[in-house]
């Protein structure tokens, strides 16, 4: 449909460079199919853990003038229930990436092996949710990132993506990215949400039930673009950009910085589920006959 938008993330071929980000509309087979039919090049499941989890008490989401703050607490149906949702999804036609989280190497390994049983196109390791307590620190540790990634790349036979934080010092992020690459990661996702907070000045209390949360949307796009740009120069594996993509020009900006594809989550709230098709159309207009792959990293 969009031949000039085809792109590759390692061995995975995408019909276009827009992906559903983990965390929104990714919990059921029905919603994943809806997103696919709405034009996404691929879909990423909601991050799942070993067991079902309710997450934090509300309020869980608050709108700010520049994006959304959320503190969900990684609510999820658990790996076994997710397997039932996405098994036999016809992966020859549709690209599904299973997002997983865990609290240690062994837990990540078990999750990855279970996810692989569903025949997904790949696995994304969520090492960086900023409001998940001690789990949020994994992606800040180069050694732990390398250990987890190494075990999973050795134990599974499908592509492994590593989702990195946006709230660590650049020098450390470079180390984490290099560690993931050294351990065999097929791609990096940059960036997760960044920590933020909102306070109700009438009640004089935090609005979110968890007090602090992760900021997504337009406010973090310059952060994401900068980090993609910086890490692109340090690694030799593909990068998937994430953070604040709502228009075709946002996608192109990330690609010029070095991304081979982008993930979209909060943008769905602003432009509805057909945002993927809208962004593809806007991108094609701006490309004016060029192939998107020819723009990867061109800003360097």
Automatic annotation (TrEMBL):
Protein name: Dihydroorotate dehydrogenase
Dihydroorotate dehydrogenase catalytic domain boundaries: 5-284
Location in the cell: Cytoplasm
Domain of life: Archaea
UniProt GO molecular function: dihydroorotate dehydrogenase activity
Function: Catalyzes the conversion of dihydroorotate to orotate.
Cofactor requirement: FMN
Cofactor stoichiometry and binding remark: Binds 1 FMN per subunit.
Enzymatic reactions: (S)-dihydroorotate + A = orotate + AH2
Organism in which the protein naturally occurs: candidate division MSBL1 archaeon SCGC-AAA382A13
Record's subunit section: Heterotetramer of 2 PyrK and 2 PyrD type B subunits.
SUPFAM superfamilies: FMN-linked oxidoreductases
Ligand binding (substrate): 46, 70-74, 126, 192-193
């Amino acid at each position: 449909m969009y031949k000039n938008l085809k792109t590759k993330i390692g061995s995975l071929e995408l019909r276009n460079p827009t992906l559903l980000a983990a965390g929104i509309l990714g919990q059921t087979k029905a919603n994943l199919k809806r997103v696919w039919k709405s034009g996404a090049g691929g879909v990423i499941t909601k991050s799942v853990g070993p067991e079902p989890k309710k997450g934090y008490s509300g309020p869980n989401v608050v709108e700010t003038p520049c994006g959304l703050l959320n503190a969900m607490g990684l609510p999820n149906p658990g790996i076994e229930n997710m397997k039932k949702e996405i098994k036999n999804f016809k992966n020859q036609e549709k690209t599904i990436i299973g997002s997983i989280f865990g609290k240690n190497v062994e837990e990540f390994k078990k999750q990855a092996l279970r996810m692989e049983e569903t025949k997904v196109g790949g696995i994304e390791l969520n090492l960086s949710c900023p409001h998940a307590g001690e789990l949020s620190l994994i992606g800040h540790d180069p050694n732990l990132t390398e250990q987890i990634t190494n075990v999973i790349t050795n134990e599974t036979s499908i592509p492994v993506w590593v989702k990195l934080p946006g709230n660590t010092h650049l020098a450390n992020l470079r180390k984490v990215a290099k560690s993931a690459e050294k351990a065999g990661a097929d791609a990096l996702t940059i960036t997760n949400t960044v920590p933020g907070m909102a306070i109700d000045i009438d009640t004089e209390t935090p609005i979110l039930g968890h007090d602090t949360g992760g900021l997504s949307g337009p406010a973090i796009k310059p952060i994401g673009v900068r980090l993609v740009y910086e890490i692109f120069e340090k690694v030799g594996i593909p990068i998937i950009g994430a953070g604040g993509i709502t228009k075709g020009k946002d996608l192109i900006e990330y690609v010029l910085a070095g991304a081979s594809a982008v993930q979209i989550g909060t943008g769905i709230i602003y432009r509805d589920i057909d945002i993927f098709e809208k962004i593809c159309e806007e991108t094609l207009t701006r490309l004016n006959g060029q192939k998107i792959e020819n723009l990867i990293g061109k800003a360097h």
